[in-house]
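Data availability (excerpt). The following record was deposited with the supplementary files.
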Amino acid sequence: MKFLMAPLVGLALILPAAAPARPVAPAKATAAKSKSKPKAKAKPKVAAEAPPPVIPSPAAQRVINWVMGDHDNRGLPWAVVDKVNATIFLFAPDGKPLAAEPVLIGIMPGDDASPGVGTKTLASLGPAEKTTPAGRYLAKFGLPVAGERVLWVDYATSVALHPIPKDAGAKEKRRQRMLSPTPDDNRITFGCINVPQAFYTRQLRPTFRKKGGYVYILPDTKTLEQVFPRLHTQVAG
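Predicted structure:
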């Protein structure tokens, strides 16, 4: 209101004083008001602490070291999916870490896809067929599912990497499972790998969009060497 004060002062010098519209408050009341307690200062906001970094498991670190050491990603972006710990690690083509996020995976443990599973409907899959197969895959965006393109990890077995489906049943509580602090409840999909929507939109999709990339899915029943034979040349760390 400072910009209004100068004109008002000028008017007070020109116009005669007018009678007040209401009685002036006694001086005592004014004094009492001036002794009122000052308002407490607002406490400074404390910045939220950043979540601790996700450290790869020894098995995931072995695969990461192998891919980086041998340049097995062939100049493409790549990701490592640790099924046991329900985590995905995303890397740039040069091996720079980009993100680490929780994932949801197939209901049943198992590292092999059932024969013919890619030709079946979701409703016709048996419990033992709802696995996320392990291995090294050249993943690319492809044909749309429910009107939206997805990153196909293995098109032949219908294993894709995408956010939680919008039509996922409420009883499955996929979002709550993904946000839980442990991987114990992250087995809920039919075999696909579900990732957080923000991670998929802002990091995974832009990184893999042009040429695709490699996805390394760690086993949960086999050994690393069975799934990734080239690891025989690596010393376990």
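Summary of structural features: Confidence is low (pLDDT under 50) at residues 1-34.
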